[in-house]
Amino acid sequence: MMKNRQLWMWGGATVIFLGILYLIQGILMPFLTGLLVAYAMNPAVKCFEKWGISRTFATCIMIFSFFLLIGLFLFIAIPFIQTELLRLASRIPQYGDRILVTLQPYIDNASLYIKPEDANRLRELASSYFGDAITWGIKLLVKVLTSGLALANLLSLIVITPIVAFYFLRDWNKIIQAIDSWLPRPYEPTLRCLFTEMNNRIGAFARGQSLVCLLVGIYYIITLTLAHLDFSVVVGMVIGVIAFIPYVGALVGFMLSMGIAFSQFSDWTSIGIIVGIFVVGQTLEAYLFIPYFVGDRIGLHPVWVLFSLLVGGVLFGFIGILFALPIAAAMGVLVRHFLEVYLKSPYYLGSVSLKAN
């Protein structure tokens, strides 16, 4: 009876906690980002402590260095991206003409089976929908850029995140000790072992996946540039940033690249080279980068990885996507532990007879 009561108590507390997070998700970004930064920098601060540097001073060094690098990157990247977007905007009419010229033979062949008035109607509809889509996209971009809430979130991310990261990182050992003191004493060794395994899996996965994203981005930037594809650097950066989502990064990059390739090149050889680059890239990512740098560190099947990312995105938006894999890895450790306990229990081995109430 006591165990059932404890189970219901912990289950109810978990539901209430998740409900509160869902209600306040709009303000969670700077706090969770600060927690993520502190978690990533804690090993480096430990190294400074081993060299005799105080934790507070080491925290100041790491936080200042990290956000200085981020600021320098944005200072360099934002003007470059802005320039590339202006180039893309100026070339959209030219790209449209090239695509029309490329597709014209197929349109002419199709016109043999379609009435002229129907073909003209299809062109009008396509032009109308394309114009509506461009207009909607521009309005959405303007709305996002001028939104007071978006500006407030950006300012809170810039101002609050360093402060949160500093206090989390400085007091990391105290936080861990406090959580450790709250653990039920009879289950402390088991819970400590589980938390250690979670930390090892999440840390190893984060380091490995970061290297994969970096290598994938560099590969596509170099190869697409050598193939003379327009906006190759931007496309490679996009692929590298979202490569932590299995197959999605390469799929988005492939669609972008093929759209640019069809509008830029008039020969099938150049388009085939772009296709070959992505075939080789996916082969390297699937059979070299991920097995070597990531392997089975997270302990989850790729289908469950995609599922957890989608669930996190639906429930909590970008924050959910950011923390979906660490939470899924932690839940995987718990599920495997409970499954191991169950397989050793009398309920599985059949030495306990269950009586119907």
Considering the chains and any ligands shown, give keywords for the structure.
357 residues; mainly alpha; 85% helix
Give a short synopsis of this structure.
This protein has 357 residues and is mostly helical. Helices cover 85% and strands 0% of the residues.
Q: Classify the secondary structure makeup into a structural class.
A: mainly alpha
Q: Quote the average pLDDT.
A: 77
- What level of helicity do the residues show? over 70%
Report the span from N to C terminus: 15 Å
Uncertain segments are 144-149
Order of helices and strands: HHHHHHHHHHHH
Give the percentage of residues in beta strands.
under 5%
Would you kindly provide a written description of the structure presented here, covering whatever features stand out?
- This protein has twelve helices and no strands.
- The protein is mainly alpha-helical.
- The chain has helices spanning 2-23, 29-50, 55-111, 116-146, 148-170, 172-182, 188-226, 232-241, 248-264, 268-294, 302-343, 346-349.
- The protein has a domain at 27-182.
- Residues 144-149 have low confidence and may be disordered.
- The two termini are 15 Å apart.
- Helices cover 85% and strands 0% of the residues.
Tell me the layout of helices and strands:
Blueprint: H1 2-23, H2 29-50, H3 55-111, H4 116-146, H5 148-170, H6 172-182, H7 188-226, H8 232-241, H9 248-264, H10 268-294, H11 302-343, H12 346-349
